[in-house]
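**User:** My hope is that you can spare some time for a protein that puzzles me. I have put the entry right below:
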Amino acid sequence: MPKILAVTKDNRTYKLFFNQISAFFNGKVTILSSEQCQDYENVDIILLSNKELQDDQYPEEKVLIARRTINIARLEELISLPAGTECLVVNNLASTASETIEILENFGFELKFYPYYPGIKTYQKVEVAIIPEALEMVPKGIKRMIDIGLRPLDFSTLIELSLKLNINIDRANIQSARYIQEIIKLSRNLSHSFKEVAHLNHQLDAILNTVHDGILATDAEKKIIKINRSAKSMLGMHHSENEIIGKKVSEILPKLKLDSYINDDLSQKNHVISFNERKLIINNSSIVVDQKNSGDVTAFQDVTRIQALEQEIRKKIQKKGFSSRYSISDIIGKSQRMKDILHIINKLAKTDRTVLILGENGTGKELFAHSIHQLSSRRNGPFIPVNFAGLPESLAESELFGYEEGTFTGGVKGGKQGLFELAHNGTIFLDEIGDAPKNLQTLLLRVLQEKQVMRVGGRSIIPVNVRVIAATNKDLKKMVEEGSFREDLYYRLFVLPLRIPPLRDRKEDIPELITHFFEEFCPTIPAISDDVLNELVNYNWPGNVRELASVVQYMITVMENNVITFLDLPEQFHRTGPTVIIDDTLLQLNKEGDLVDFHTILCSLLEAMQERKSIGRGKIVSYAKEKGVLLTDQQVRRRMETLRDRGFIQSGTKGQGSKLTQMGMSIIQQMERIINENEKVMKRLSE
């Protein structure tokens, strides 16, 4: 269940927020106070009653500063004050007192308001105070106190909470109807208190014009008795007030046909209509006086405005992980193949048609999907990735299309939006589409054809505006022939195919990719010889770019002195490729002693074997000295023990000396290559 942390100045305001939010969401959210919550990561929204309560420790993306209004039902006593009456507007903060004054002035009250709050040094001495249930804050000398109650949340704040929490906002219309009923109730009370209709109309007009919804009031004969500015704007009315009041709706707006909507039991449901190229939601409430219907109040809500607000909230939701992380600048490669691909991507991004990305594992298909989204007109919308290879078949349908409340035991209260709904006005990336189960393929086909989804357990169709990018490493055409992939879905996906070449087909990009991964994984760029680089370029790369990234990470982890040698290449280079086999034993020998020492000993034994002579430690010391390698008798003994333990030499019998084994002969050339490579690298570093 979504959680809202309500941060207020006092407990009374918290209780007001708690009751109002609970009623609006019908128990679908949990509301916490500051004392009940210290872990801000576990709440979805932090609602501040005032911007002065902002705290640096609150996550910025979760903070919502409440917009507050005044309870219309509490204004009757205030309206009875004579014009020009001086009033103190009492509140706990200077800012909230000023906000209350601004709202009262917008209501059209012809009174003089002065702020008062605890700690104020000088204030206007008057006899009337307007208070928010806070008698303790009223200064001495006040003869009359008008309690307008605590300021409740403005209607727009409740709508924004609904959208941020992805909760169905149908109750917004119910709340709007209640608000209208309060206006009607107030107007009825005022009619008993004021004899002058003109004065009543002035006050009521001021109130109606503060409402963002369009409001049209008619009497029992369907004649217009009130209309606010928002309604005139939504309905495209340019008539003066005198041309509207007293006329029937059918006369002023013949295309609206309001009577048919009202007779359709509109008070029980919202009705969406198209009027003057706008989509409007109509909500009707009857004016009942003495158990008789004396007229109707119809509220108009602009769907376009609601959608714009929804889109704004969706942009904020993107910051929580539903946005693309890569762009075309992240694609590394200047080969002709990659230049051609990038040229095609720019063309594909300009359309909303379905793209099917084809390529082997590790070629970076998701990176290309992100780039297409970023280049498209949907770049500000969400980017939702789905990997069918890791999506359990039992959960796939509910994850993609959502579910209604009560469909599953333990499901989210109020139901849950599916990934297609979350991707509305954006892009959904269907990775590994070839792994989609057969029953799910049928549902995907319907979405691609109709641009509509139906939640699991639902009865209504939900339209979605989503661009689909799919990807696979499988041969879908062959799967169609085998019957494991639907042919009609294949042709729905195979609209704009994009094939990503494997790394072995663009080897000229490998050096640039290696440099890129060095910069990403290593604080300082290591030295690497041309021979090692050629080894990497000539490798077949069955794992493509993903394997190359892993190889680079391995090399920079095991390298020494920030230098990459043949010894630092991973296992796959030990067993395959154009070079001779490099045994892991060389790594250990290099650690136990200078590799040059071991190589010199083996070479001396090889030369003795070729001359069919036996050789002892003394002769090996002399041989090493001739080659410029200084070894003591003790050092030779220890190194020969190491070589003997590893099977490279064997001890002779009866003073015959040691002999080189077949394995020892095979490793000499490998040692020579590594030693020469190390010398080249060190020479380059010294230069």
Q: What stands out?
A: Residues 662-686 form the longest helix (25 residues). The chain has a mean pLDDT of 82. The chain has 27 helices and 24 strands. The CA atoms of residues 159 and 306 lie 9 Å apart.
